[in-house]
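Forwarding the complex inputs:
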Amino acid sequence: MSAPEAAVLVELSGVSKAFGDDPETRVEVLHGIDLEIRAGEFVALIGPSGSGKSTLLNLLGLLDRATTGTLRIQGRDVAALTDAELTRLRGETLGFVFQFHHLLPALSVAENVMLPAAALEGSLRAAQRPRAAQLLAAVGLEGQEDRPAGRLSGGMQQRVAVARALMNQPAVVYADEPTGNLDTASSDRVIELLQDWNAQHDTAFVIVTHDPGIARRCRRVIELVDGRVVADGPPSQVLGPQS
Amino acid sequence: MLPIQLAWRFLTEGRTQTLLIVAGVTIGVAAYVFITATMIGVQENMVAQTLGTQAHITVRNDPPALLPVVAREGVTIRQVAQPEPRQTPFDRWQRALTRLENTPGVRAACPKLTGSALALRGGGRTAVQLVGADPARLSDIIDLPGHLVSGAYRPGAEAAVIGAGLATELGLRVGSPLLLQTDSTEATVRVVGTFRLGAAAVDDRWVVVSLRGAQSLLGRPGDVSAIDATVTDLFGADRIAADVSARTGLPVDSWIGLNAALLSALSAQDQSTIMIRVFTLLAVAMGIASVLAVTVVQRRGQIGILRAMGVRASVVLQIFLWQGALLGAGGAVMGTALGALVGAGLELVVPFPIRVDLPTALTAGAISLGTGLLAALWPARVAATMDPARAIRGDA
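Prediction (whole assembly, two chains):
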C-alpha cells in the first residue's frame, strides 16, 4: 500500500504574468504555468537568467498578482483576496529568504527574527523572544540574540534570515538565491539548515538557484525556460546523472 | 505599537541624520516661540503704555440737541449765531453708572469730573487738568497708587495727588499748599502725594482730588463729565462699548477707536509676524520631508522585507508618520525651551517682559507636531504604496 499523498499547499493553474499595459511594449514573462507544491517538499527552481524564476517566486509568495490563471494557497483562491488579506495570508503561511538577506540593521538579531510574529501580533513582544532564541540556536547562532543585526557576517546574517523565515511556522518557505552572496562554507551551512528543518518538519521549501550543486540536493527540480516549465522531476531526471 | 517601535529604531539608527533634523526643527520652533513671545511682550508693553493713562471705555454725556430754526410767518431771521460752548450737566449719570456696571465684560467703573484750572505757587503758574473721582474707583481705572513717587494716595476735597512733572515745575513737595483757580472759584489744596505714569500729558498736568472736591472747584455740584471703565477683554472693548451704548443710550468711546493708529501698527506687526512664522514652519516642514524622503529611498529594501514579512501597508505608512511626529515633538520640546531661554536672555536688555506662556508653548507644540506629520505624509505614502517585489529587488 502506498503512503498517502501530502496535502497540496500551493496550486497554480494556467498562470501567466505580463508587465505593461501598452500592447506594443507589453512583456509576457510567464506563460500558462501549472504547478503544485505539496507539504514537506524540497524543491529547486532553476533556469537561465530572464526565464521568469523571480517573477514566479513573487507570485507564489503573494508579492505580486497573476495576470491570468488561478493561484490557490491551501485551497484559497488568492485572486479574490484584498491586499490586506493577502498580506495576512503571506505572514501566516509563507516564509522568505532573499539573496540579500535584508535584515533590519536598526533591530537586534532576535528582533529581526521576531518581526514576522510582530507583524501579525501588532508589536515586538517579550513573549516572542523564546521562540526566536530557539530558532537562532537551531541555526547555530545561540547567544547572538542581542547583537545588532548589521554587525554580523554575511553568512550569519543569512542564517538569521532563515530563522526569521521560520518564525511563524510557515507552510512554505521561498528562498531566492539564498546562497548567491555567500562563500562555499556558508552556502553549505545554509542549505544544510534548510534540509534539516525540512527533514524534521512538514515545511515545504522552494529554492530558486543557479547552482546545480544546490539543485541536486533537492528532491524535486523545476526548470523554467522563457517563462514555461520545461522540466519537473527528480534532480537525476531534470539535471541528468551526476558526473 | 509596531509602527512606533520601528519608527523609533529607524530614527535612533540614523543618529547623526536624526540629530541634524531635530536640531533644524528645534531652531525653527525656537524662532517661532521667540518671535511670538517677543511680539506679545512688545504689544502688551505698547498697549500697557497706552492704557496706563486712559480708560478702556468712556461713557460720555449726551448734550440735548439744539432746536432747529423754524421759519414762522411774519418773523424774519437776520442772523444765525452758533451757541456758546457750555457745560451741560450729565443727567442721571448714576443710572448710567449702574447700567454700565451691569454690562457683561465691564470690570470696573469710575465717574469722574474733569476740568481746566490754573495752578499757582509763588510766582509760578501753569494750566492743569483737574481730575475729580472717588479714589478707590479711580485706582481701578488708572493705577496711580502703583506709580506713586512720594507721599500717599489719599486725594480728598482739599488734598491733591499731582503729577511728578507738575510738582517739579512748581517746586511742590508732599505737604506743600497749592492754589487752584478755576472759572468759578479758587481754593488751596495740600499736596499729599506725587505720581509718575510715564506720560508727560498726565505727569505734567494732572491734579487729582476727590469727586466732591472737583465738583466744588469747578462749580458743578453733583455733576460728572464722564464715566470711565475697564473691561475684561481689552480687544473686545469696541463690542462692549457698543453694548454699553445700547444699554445707556449714551455715546461711548473705546480705547480702540481712540487709538486707531496704534491698532493699525499692532495689526501690521501681527501680519509680518505671521509671515515670519509661516516661512519658519515651511523651512521646518521641508527639512523633515526631505530627510524622510531620503530615508524612504534608503530603506526601500527594508520596506519590501517588512511587507514580505506580513507588515500591512497601513503599518508602513504609520512608521513614517510616527517618525515625522517624533521629529516634530522632539523639536517642539527642545525648540520651546530654547526659545524661552533666548527670550529670557533678551529680557535682560529690553524694557518689557518676554515670557513664553502656555498657549504659545502649546501652539508651538501642536504646530510642530502637525508640521512633522504633514511633512511625513508624502514620504509615508510613497513607502506604503511601494510594490514589495520591486522594493526587495531594489528598483522601487
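The interface with chain B takes residues 54, 58, 61, 63-64, 83-84, 87-88, 90-92, 96, 98, 100, 102, 104-107, 115-116, 118-120, 122-124, 164, 168 of chain A (CB under 8 Å).
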